[in-house]
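thread from #wetlab-drylab

HS: before we spend reagent money on co-crystallization trials with NDP, can we at least see a predicted complex? here's what I'd submit
DV: go for it
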Amino acid sequence: MQGITILGATGSIGASTLDVVARHPGRYRVYALSAHSRVEELAAACRQFRPQRAVVGSPEAAAQLAALIAGLPTSVEYGEQALCDIASSADTDIVMAAIVGAAGLAPTLAAARAGKKILLANKEALVMSGQLFMDAVREHKATLLPVDSEHNAIFQSLPSSYARVPAASGVAKILLTASGGPFLNRAVETLDSVTPDEACKHPNWVMGRKISVDSATMMNKGLEVIEAHWLFGAPADQIEVVIHPQSVIHSMVSYVDGSVLAQLGNPDMRTPIANALAYPERIDSGVAQLDLTQMAGLQFFAPDFERFPCLALAFDALRAGGTAPALLNAANEVAVQAFLERRIGFRDIDRVIRHALDVVPHGPAPSIEAVLAQDARARAAADDAVSNLASGLQR
Ligand code: NDP
Ligand code: MG
């Protein structure tokens, strides 16, 4: 039986992972679960899966959880070091990295350094420190399996799953599909007044609020371009974004002979999660088979970089290299949070990011400490921009 640690167990990906794990009780044993502050949800998961360890974000949350699950064989801990411990423990084989944002970096890196099989949902960790993270994976012989649906589709469509694109024979391009999110066809002038709830109403996927806003700005696709660069070794010029509103094709690889290989499926994250969990085997995910006869039609078109300036910013950051993607990611996290709290408007998100990228010079990324220092500077610059915009909004 394989032990599994789920970082971010109370989130959208965490819940889908637990759903798949519950379908295979003889195959997986839940070793540890984590959450930040949603203690009741974590307590419910502890009652169902009886992990050895549970980690939350604060001593208060830990006390609350301990009271809720008194009598269970689960020890309760809190804080970043505890997250790193459950990700690197000898008692776990698999680590699902599903914490949202930069907070996931330290534990995901700890899993890499401990040589674990990592199921990577937390794209922000890879965007922040791609080279350092991939070096740690190689050095410690960790296994990195992409959970993000597009990257899992590419993984399945490459000539061999661990192929590196520039060296892989015959790969011409990675075609990263994007739904275009809820504002694909909305008049650009009206985007100033959209609410957080409208931005979070994704047409095809049910996800956490941060990634939902990222999908509405298409920063999610921008982060995924950077993620694809690191996972598959593809330079920016070999990654193309294709809008495909139906989200049935999850991404494609095109080859020099004109072949295009794709992975299709219903838009349900349990498919890539099950694929990564059992790789190279296949297990039941609970997702219904795709009924192609029910498809009204599949559309594809090029993205509009003026409607979605965040996508252009991400391509620029990837080309700039070094700490530029970390700056982009940090400023985006601040801007999205400010938008969700209604302190800035939707179209201010890219303004905040641009400001941070303008005032914080990027440079090489020689260490995690250097990346985190840049991350902190970008957050401070983005906070300034948010304050200025927010005071403008109040006037
Ligand atoms: P959610 O917001 O639904 O869940 C986030 C999880 O992380 C929760 O368990 C949350 O705990 C925990 N968390 C939040 N902040 C912190 C923190 N500071 N420290 C430790 N833990 C924290 O997000 P999703 O499940 O949607 O996304 C998770 C990751 O997966 C993201 O990186 C996203 O980009 C990626 N992803 C998600 C997809 C999806 O379909 N949802 C698809 C592809 C990638 P609590 O509940 O207590 O707040
Ligand atoms: Mg995705």
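DV: The chain has three domains: 2-146, 154-267, 321-394.
HS: ok that's useful, forwarding to the group
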